[in-house]
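Question: I have long wanted to understand how a fold can be written as C-alpha cells. Here is the record:
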Amino acid sequence: MCVTSGRKLCSRAFTLLEVLLSILIVVAAVFFGKRLVGTMSENAKSIEETKIIDSGMHALMTLMRADLGSIVMARGQQPVFEIHENDRRKGIEIFFLTTNDDEHVTTAVKYDIAEPEFGHIEVTRTALNKEMTIALQSAMGSHSSFGKFFENAAPSVKRTHTFGLLLSDFKIRAGVKKYDGSIVSTYPNSKVAYVGGNLICERATRKSTIPCDLLFFDVTVRSFAKSDAAKFDHIKAKDLAKAREFLFQRSRRSFARITINSSSFS
C-alpha cells in the first residue's frame, strides 16, 4: 500500500512538473516572440527612416550638383560665387548665377544654410525670376553685393523651396587651380568670393587674393535617424564635445565633388 501510494504521489508530482514546464515554455515562447516581433518592427522602422534620410540627402545633392555644375562664369568684376555669413541667424548663405533653370536662362540663386542650434541645420533655396536676375547682373557691374540684392528683392520675384530634411552638418569647399598648376581648396564654409579670375578669402582680420581658375566644389551633408537625433540632443545637453563625436560617428553622410562645366567669358 505504501509503495503504491508513493508511486501515485511521484506520478502526480511528475505530472505537475510537466504542466509547470509546459506553462514556462509557453510563457517563454510568448515573451521572446513578442521581443522578436518588436525587434523586427524596430528594424523595419529604422530601415524606412534610413531610406527617407538618404532620399532627402540625394535630392538636395542632386539639385546642388545641377546648380553649381552649371554656374555662370561672369566676365569682368561681376562675382561668380560668394559665401557670406548669415547676418540674421547663425549659418551661411551661398550665392551664384546658374543656367540650371526650366527656361534654360541665367538665374540668380541663393542657398540659405541656417543652423538655429548646433546639429540642427535647415536648407532653403531661393531663385530670382528672369527679369530680376537681369537687373542683378546689371547691378553687380556697379559692385553691388548678392546679399543686399536678394534682401531687397520683393517676394513676388522669388521662388523659394525649403528642404524638408533636417541636417546635422553641412560643409562646402571651393577647389581652385592656381596659375602655378597647384590645386587648393578653401576652408569649409569660409567667407569667399570668386571675382574676375581671383579667389578672395577672408578669415578673421586676414584677407587674401589668389589668381586662379575655379574647378570644383566639395559638398558634404549629414543627417540623423530619429532615434539617433534624440540621443544626440540628450548628449549635447550634457557634453558638447561628446555630441560632436557622436554626430560624426552616427549620422549618415553624403558627399559630392561638383565639377564646374562652364568656361570663363574673360
In short: The first strand starts at residue 79 and ends at 85. Residues 98 and 104 are 9 Å apart (CA to CA).
